[in-house]
Amino acid sequence: MTQTVAHSASVPEFNAGAVRVGISNGMKSSSEKSFFNFATVAPMSRAAYEAARTFMDDFYQYGPPEVLYRYDSLADNMAAEAARLINCAPAEITYLKNTTEGIIIASEALPLGCGDEVLVLGNEYPANLLPWLRKRHDGVTVKVITGSDNEAAFRRLLESISPQTRAISMSSAQRYDGFMPNLALLSERCRDQGIFLVIDAVQHIGARAIDVAKTPVDILVCGGQKYLRAGLGIGFMYVSQNVLPALRDSRVGIRSMEHFDENSYVLRNTAARFQDGTQNMAGLAALNASLREINAIGMDAIEQKNLAILQGIKAILREYKIDFIDHGMCQSNIVSLRTADPSALANFLMERGVYIKAIQDVTRVSFIHESKLEDVEVMARHLHEFLHAGTNCIRSGSLGKPETAGRRTGTKRPKLSSPLPTI
């Protein structure tokens, strides 16, 4: 008779320290960087980090179900903070994993069919373009207004509105050069002509105030990884109560239900109808904390500080005669520099601890209300060094209002120590 012998495998002892090493070797910490790339992915705010870490600590130490019960109200709390920020009802807010998800939901939920027309800008981030291009498979006409001059493209978009136009989708602050279209004008045109208006506000919220009660839109989406500084994989979506009855049930899951049985279901009559299953609780904790912090400071105060920093950045760039795209007051927290080799410039600055972003044919500088003009001055000196070393050259273009190159004689250096608005 053959005997079976059970072999017990030895389980190595868990070493918590081993999983906390991360990728720190040779990398600068966030505090060591002169960071001007918030329009791509921002470092987390301390408030967001602490909130996410507290949830993860609780979940690890105490686990389900108690921790899940305790944090069950997070989605509602986040919705209340987001609603306060953009002036809507909490029932019109739900969470997302990113901006792309929100645009996909909008493209599938809006009642668009064969012969309907959607207008979009071609110089958008792909998140606000690709989901709409897919609608061509459904017989929807998708008209793309091309051109890197966003200001001119916006004028052409308004001129392109036709009786067939059923939806317009665009960013309220453009990622290429920070141009902010006249959202009030666009909103009015859409309301007057029965057009659905979808807004990607990821480059807007946290940098400028937005009030959807004063400037109505149908759907607004915003990832949390940029000016909200809430980390990755979390964001929020606003869905106007007025448009909800017209939307298709493009997504169904247990969290989107009012009630259901084996034969039928009834969706919730709020933005939560676009929820699905298991929630990103750590992300919700971070986003809720980030929104709460912004609301505590006050978005009006943050906007005024950002506008003052924007003017300071432009003044410094003019003094060093660095060419940039200027949209005046119709500009977010983005200033794009015209350079012949954006990647070379971005790499040159990164070697010196200054982080900006090469995007298409420009080098993009983006900031937040905590950014310091002293750091902009350092960046400008490095830019001047790079340009006058013959590594690159500034070129003039037709976008915005060009700034001439070189140092201006008779121009008084901006006083970096002059007081900015305090918040």
Number of strands: 14
Quick one: CATH superfamily of the largest domain? Answer: Type I PLP-dependent aspartate aminotransferase-like (Major domain)
User: Structural class, from helix and strand content?
Assistant: alpha/beta
Average pLDDT figure: 89
Compute the separation of the termini in Å. 83 Å
What is the CATH fold-level name of the largest domain? Aspartate Aminotransferase, domain 2
Q: What is the CATH top level name of the largest domain?
A: Alpha Beta
Helix percent reads: 25-40%
**Share in β-strands:** 5-15%
Short description:
By secondary structure, the chain is α/β, with parallel strands linked by helices. It has 11 helices and 14 strands. The protein has helices spanning 46-61, 66-70, 74-86, 99-109, 130-134, 150-160, 183-192, 281-297, 299-319, 342-350, 373-388, and strands at 34-35, 93-96, 117-121, 141-145, 165-171, 196-200, 219-223, 235-239, 257-260, 265-267, 334-338, 354-355, 357-359, 362-366.
